[in-house]
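Posted in: Protein Modeling Q&A

I'm a second-year student putting together a small comparison for a lab meeting, and my supervisor asked me to include a predicted structure for ABC transporter ATP-binding protein. I've never done this before, so apologies if this is the wrong subforum. The sequence is pasted below exactly as I got it from our records. If anyone can share the structure token output, I'd also love a short note on what stands out.
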Amino acid sequence: MPKTADTADTAETPAPPRPPLPEPKEVRCRDAGVRDAFESASFLQLCSRIPALLAQIARMAWEVDRRDVLVLVGCQLLSGTAAAVGLAATARAMTPVLGGGLVPDRIREALPALIVVAVAAAVARVTYGVASWAVSRLKPRLMTAADVALVEAVVSVELAALNRADFADEHEAAETGAIRCDRMLYDAQAFMSALIRLVAACGVLTVLHPLMLPVLVLAVLPSGAGAVAEAKIEHRTHYANVSRRNVKGMMRWHVTTPRLADEVRANSMRAYLMFWYRTVSHRIDERIVEAAGLGLRVNLLAAVAGGACLTLAWTTLVWLTVTGRVSFAVSATAVVAVRAALGNLTNVVHYCTSLFHSTLYLGDWKRFVDRTRALAPNRGRETAPAHPETIRFENVTYSYPNKARPAVDGLDLTLRRGELVAVVGENGSGKSTLMRLVTGLFTADKGTVSWDGVDLANADPDTVWARTGLVPQFFAYWPLTARENITLGQPLTWDDDRVWETVDLVGLRPTVEEFPEGLDMLLARELWGGVNLSGGQWQRIACARALYRRPPVLILDEPTSELDARGEHMIFQALKDMAKDRITIVVTHRLDNTRIADRIVVMEHGRITEQGPFDRLVTAGGLFQELYALSQDR
Ligand SMILES: Nc1ncnc2c1ncn2[C@@H]1O[C@H](COP(=O)(O)OP(=O)(O)OP(=O)(O)O)[C@@H](O)[C@H]1O
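Accepted answer (user: helix_wrangler)
Welcome! Here is the predicted structure, written out as tokens:
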């Protein structure tokens, strides 16, 4: 085939080099104060905090299951006592075993002590097993308690707090704390167990020779200091990666959720998204790998220093024996006791550091839960009226954090019962913010929003939300049954009549009747046995959820943006039919829909610039007329 000019050009002109993919923006955690608290703590300071940390863990576990805590503590005391008795009995058995005389006589003499050693070892084993059983029972419930407390704190927080820039990072750090609860309990148990055994071994050693104890402590100090330094490195690494992990988690959801799968594929986003995901993952890994090198250096240093100190300990023991300061039998007992003490001392240091490390994460959890609980609405005890006649905005201003301009700026407005009000305006003009102020989701920075004279800033928000029904701009696709999706947030009724009535209002009956399980159908394609709905069907479900509540204040933010003409007509008809018993506010960009409204409110830059019925505004020469003309100009 002859080449056309076009194809010839394409063949000869080399393709321009592709520009490199833009690197993902680096994000950083803000809470440096928390990290510094650990960074600056000395080993002794860390040790001094251990009793308080143990008490905190014990308190948390106590709330979960008192019996298991008592079993755990009882077992540890018993196992410590058994260890002490076992060591003391070993010392007693050594003298005849290593002394002079006939072997049968020596064994006979040592036998009672040897039996005590065997029984003590058996008791230690059994109590260890029972203690582990109690820990395994406590661990999952402790984690669940921490997790539930975290989730509960987040869902109860003032909405405005979620807009704080550091909220997501603190949340991510706190989640690590909730997850580490299981490790923390294990660490606490292992620490206590090693400590009790150590005290027992040290007691025996001190009786054998007073010089042994300080030498032993010296032998283990370097590894203790090394473990603390390593924990600090790990925690610093954790903080350095908090924001990256947070943003990676968000991105992971976006990349893998079936909700966005069409957009990801058909807009050929995969390559960049995978590049982004890999790059951020590598940044996280690099930080960890870098820390591993540092950790190795610290460990090697601790090992060399520890080895030297240990040599000193053994040399001292040999010197004591050779110079006759201790007998050969006592020296042999000392070897057993030193080994036991050394093992337990190493464990004490290891678990003490690990415990401290875990409790740092627990500190993140606790700080976040406490702070978040303190951010729960605490506005006053006034009760919102059951059927408000008027909602009044008086000179209301609201600004989002880090925004130069208020989203709602000195706004005055009165909404009356029986009235259907449409709110219109260009993107970003403040309509959704107005909706959040009507419902008390936000309280005004300046001015008042009141329901029949009750200022929402002083009203218990639950009493306000018990009277509202909201279709937000972004609504959830709850992975629940169709019935639950409609009745969510409402007390259950005995029959489904009202559910079906609502299903009819939004025109979903044919869809629901087609489901093999009707209202019991699970609306989640991702879950086994579930089905998915179209975007418009989901929006009908969101409308049904608000209408089912039959609320005295009904707010719909773009409720029909995804509906077909029939669906849109049905919803607006339903709103009109229901309007006389309530205050209804609809935000919409489809200006033809505003014909049914009793009043249209036009917003510009957070202010109301026009109000009135459709027929007047459409010829008033203002923004509404301009926007309406644009919507008709096709
Ligand atoms: N969570 C937020 N944090 C910071 N700024 C916000 C937030 N939500 C909205 N804004 C800002 O407040 C202003 C008003 O936003 P709002 O969502 O109320 O507008 P809108 O009229 O509902 O817009 P649209 O028609 O696009 O839905 C905008 O400038 C917006 O960028």
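A couple of things worth pointing out for your meeting: The domain at 390-632 is CATH 3.40.50.300 (Rossmann fold). The chain has 20 helices and ten strands.
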